[in-house]
Amino acid sequence: MSALAPPRPAHPAGPYSAHRLFEWAMAVMMLLVALTLAVPGDALERASLRPVAALGFGEEEMALFFGAVGTLRTAALVLNGHINNGVARPNGANIRAACSGFGAVIMGQLTLALVVDALSADAPSFVIPVFGTLTVFEAISCYVARRDAVARRRPVVPKAR
Q1: Do the beta carbons of residue 16 and residue 156 sit within 8 Å?
Q2: What is the CA radius of gyration of the chain?
């Protein structure tokens, strides 16, 4: 960094959450989906969401699951920048990897349900590529978080000799 370059501001969630925008977006999306499913009314009865409802989970169970994963993921992202500084246990990155894995499974199931429905319908849902893309990028986030966990097994702060 040159002397003329302005200093980079510190990220409020710590140095290990600075480049996690997609993970933050997915955590917020999961919390908003949980909130949407928790409000009165039957959100899964809409025609485009009937295949999702056919998976066998009710709105309450789905809201609880989305809320739990979203909350855990948000906590892991916040804590990820504040833990592990000089400690050999990469818990934040492992929690991020697990939540990304759950997210990939959730989005994959939603994609599969809509694809199966599209095979019997006249036209596929336009949401299939959205959920499919989210599935792929969640899997990539899981891989990156797992690599972070492995790379951070060594202490961040070098020991004095």
Answers
A1: no
A2: 19
> Cα–Cα distance between 97 and 145 in angstroms, integer?
5
How many residues in the chain?
A: 161
pTM for this entry: 0.72
End-to-end CA distance of the chain: 28
Q: Are 73 and 26 in contact (CB under 8 A)?
A: yes
Q: Mean of the pLDDT values across residues 132-145?
A: 93
Please give the DSSP secondary-structure letter assigned to residue 15: T
What whole-number percentage of the chain has pLDDT above 70? Answer: 71
Cβ(60)–Cβ(14) below 8 Å? no
Structure tokens at 28: 């917020």
- How does DSSP assign 39-103, residue by residue? SSS-GGGSGGGHHHHTTS--HHHHHHHHHHHHHHHHHHHHHHTTS-SS-S--HHHHHHHHHHHHH
Report the 10 Å Cβ neighbour count for 25: 12
In order of 13, 109, 116, 124, 142, the CA distances from 119 in angstroms are 44, 15, 5, 7, 30
